[in-house]
Amino acid sequence: ILFHLTEDKIWTAVQHNTTGLTRVQGADPEKPYTMSFNYNSSAEQLEAMINSAEYCEQEAAYHCKKSRLLNTPNGMPFAWWVGRANEKHLYWGGSLPGIQQCACGLEESCLDMRYFCNCDADREEWTNDTGLLAFKDHLPVTQIVITDTNRSNSEAAWKIGPLRCYGDRQFWNAASFNTEASYLHFPTFHAEVSADISFFFKTTAVSGVFLENLGIKDFIRVEISSPKEITFSIDVGNGPTEATVQSPTPLNDNQWHYVRAERNLKQTSLQVDSLPRKVLEAPAEGHFRLQLNSQLFVGGTASRQKGFLGCIRSLHLNGQKLDLEERAKMTPGVKPGCPGHCSSYGNLCHNGGKCVEKYNGYSCDCTNSAYEGPFCKDEVSALFEAGTSITYIFQEPYPVTKNASTSSSAIYVDAVMAKENIAFSFLTAHTPSLLLYINTYFHEYLAVILSKNGNLQVRYKLSKDGLLIFTIDSGNFANRELHHVKINREGRELIIQVDQVLKLKHNFSEIDFKAIKSLTLGKVTDSLSLDPEVSKANVYGFTGCLSSVQYNHIAPLKAALRHPSIAPVTVKGSLTESSCASIMEADVNTVTTIYSSSDPFGKTDEREPLTNAVRSDSAVIGGVIAVVIFIIFCIIAIMSRFLYQHKQAHRSSQTKEKEYPENLESSFKADIDLQNTVSECKREYFI
Fold it and tell me: Per the database record, which ranges form the Laminin G domain (predicted)?
């Protein structure tokens, strides 16, 4: 089972035994091709995961050459898949249950509009039908059957992806208890020989009962008995047993805390957050069956005393999830859900991301951050070539009318920037370079450059103090390594950090950096007011990789990549999104973008996936042959000089030239199989 993050979700992926692309030939209705799938989890575990998830999917891909899939519009399907409960399904990925179509049929985008699948057109060239199966009640896919690859030139290749799910519908299932007299009641908790109770809570109350279930004499109870104590009490007829965990800090701090209480024939235990677990051994003799007969009370007690004030969520009893929200909807004094998740989890939003409350949890708003992802931690990076520039235009601080009698200096006199909070990462091998340039309506500017020797310079040009230069000379920063820069000015104090190390601290006597006009990354097009050093750096601008650029609440690089049509940003030259970390060892002198095909075959021509795969491999073999031939010619030259047998050596070399490539190619073709074809297709070679 694998876990991975996307922009706003945490996915769980369960692999099966055949997740690669698989080739099929020679199948017909009398001799069908069948593949069954074995997953890394049991059927019961998969069903439980799917049922509790918000959403699940599996990719289904069918690549075909004269091989029909569903035989639309009215024929009997030539391929189908089997899902949960061993049910046969006649729809394909991207379509809906009960509709014998593929994704292109619903979207009305099939190659031949007379059919509802691309493959059903029965063409001689390669095409495919690919989409997601997302109806949870039918997942996972347990078998695929194919019956139309036995005609002349008929061939197919299929792929069923791993089962992928996100979200836990019960993790944020919560109820808010607003009065001490409010509670939820559920059927009797059957825990005769074992009990396993877990939940999260948050409160500001000094005490209260989380849950209680009574019998004639027996009972079970979990409560916050004081601001720093959680108590698990149980009586099976031998007298009450109490397990108490004491916290060094208050637990009524309106933050989420985790509780797990367990009881079996050997011991009683209580766990609170990550504090030491309290364990009590069960008596060797006496009663051992817990006999309860009343309703289970959550958030209160049968006597309605010491009720709980606060929130409880994700309540599990012996592995069963209690639906607190649904019960709270019909109970006075209790509300479904729980506000204030950001008070507990807001610190998980990084790099200026803001925590946003949701009904069933929280999310991180990365709008004003230079980062993205579920927790605003994913860098946004791009490759710059010589001459590339990104210019972010700021709004004028005050409107200027044509008939205004005041001078421009009067208009902007109050628009003084009290701070600059600048952060970015860069990777380059070129000097001099202009990384960042900010100018004002007063022809002042702030420039960050790499000088000829690779030193980093921060240069302020101010109307009163003139040019101020701050040089970081701790090494050559144009060394093809990723460097992180932070420039913070609060009022008169300037702090510069490079690679998390404080490099410079300066106090201005006076600074009036005001009325910001624009911010440029890379080459500045309006360079009339630049000093000579900045002008030299601006000849080519910046060549290399820039990442996660932040200026106060503005993220200009992210705006250019994510919102170029709506943000006040202009891009000139070549700008290619890429990961700076992944190209750290690449030669940034030649900014080369390597594209990887999203097609499972890794092909450039959609009609001939397998042929193009062989062509890709042939390029590699050709390179190897070229090297071998070169070595042979060198040997021939040496022999001809020292052994005086020019003609015989020359004929021998010609024989080797003819035989070796031919033998190599025949050997290669004999050994190649579909899996090698698919894997090699995904690479790109430069010889």
Answer: 173-338, 400-580
- Residues in CB range of 144: below 8 A, 6 or more apart: 34, 35, 37, 79, 80, 81, 82, 158, 160
**542 is written with which tokens?**
């910046």
Note the pLDDT tens digit of each residue in 477-504: 999 899 999 999 888 889 999 998 988 8
The residue count for the chain: 687
Strands (E) in 289-409, as ranges, are: 296-298, 310-317, 320-321, 334-336, 354-358, 361-365, 381-384, 389-393
pLDDT tens track for 557-587: 999 999 888 889 999 999 999 888 777 655 4
- 3-state class percentages of the chain: helix first, strand second, coil last, to nearest 5: 20, 35, 45
Adjacent-strand bridge partners of 546: 382, 426
Query: Alpha-carbon torsion 104, 107, 111, 113, what sign?
Result: positive
Long-range pairs, 232-239, Cβ under 8 A, ≥24: 232/261, 232/268, 232/270, 234/195, 234/263, 234/268, 234/290, 236/286, 236/287, 236/288, 236/289, 236/290, 236/291, 237/286, 237/287, 237/289, 237/291, 238/283, 238/286, 238/287
Sign of CA dihedral 597, 598, 603, 606: negative
- CB-CB neighbours of 162 under 10 Å: 20
* Main-chain dihedrals φ then ψ at residue 295, nearest 5 degrees: -75, 155
The answer to whether the CB of 370 falls within 8 A of the CB of 549 is yes
Write phi, then psi, for 607 (nearest 5 degrees): -80, -20
Closest by Cα among 384, 378, 366 to 436 = 384
Tokens of 405: 């009698």
pLDDT tens for residues 534-554? 999 998 899 999 999 999 889
**Lookup: tokens for 429:** 């091998």
| Residue in 669, 568, 560 with CA at minimum distance from that of residue 614 | 669
Contact 391, 520 (CB under 8 A): yes
CB atoms within 10 A of CB 322: 22
CA distance 486 to 499: 8
Cα–Cα distance for residue pair 618/305, rounded to 1 Å? 81
Helix (H, G, I), strand (E, B) or coil at 297: strand
Sheet with 575-577: list strands edge to edge. 501-507, 493-498, 483-490, 419-428, 544-551, 381-384, 575-577
Structure tokens given for 470: 């701050």
**Is beta strand 208-214 parallel, antiparallel or unpaired with respect to 219-226?**
antiparallel
Identity of the amino acid at 175? A
Q: Is the pTM here over 0.90, yes or no?
A: no
And the tokens for 19? 């997740």
- Which residue from 600, 607, 622 is spatially nearest to 677, judged by alpha carbons? 600
Q: What is the DSSP letter of 620?
A: H
Task: Identify which of 155, 129, 142, 132 has the alpha carbon closest to the alpha carbon of residue 18.
Answer: 142
| Upstream peptide bond of 97 is cis (omega within 30 degrees of 0) | no
CA–CA gap between residue 576 and residue 664 (Å, rounded)? 39
Question: What's the DSSP call for residue 21?
Answer: -
Check whether 72 has a pLDDT greater than 80.
yes
79-82 and 88-89 as β-strands: parallel, antiparallel, unpaired? antiparallel
Cβ atoms 483, 434 nearer than 8 A: no
Mean pLDDT of 28-34: 94
Q: What is the end-to-end Cα distance of the chain in Å, rounded?
A: 39
Token pair recorded at residue 620: 């590699």
Q: What SS3 state is found at 93?
A: coil
Query: How would you classify the pairing of strands 155-160 and 22-24?
Result: antiparallel
Neighbours of 563 (CB within 10 A): 13
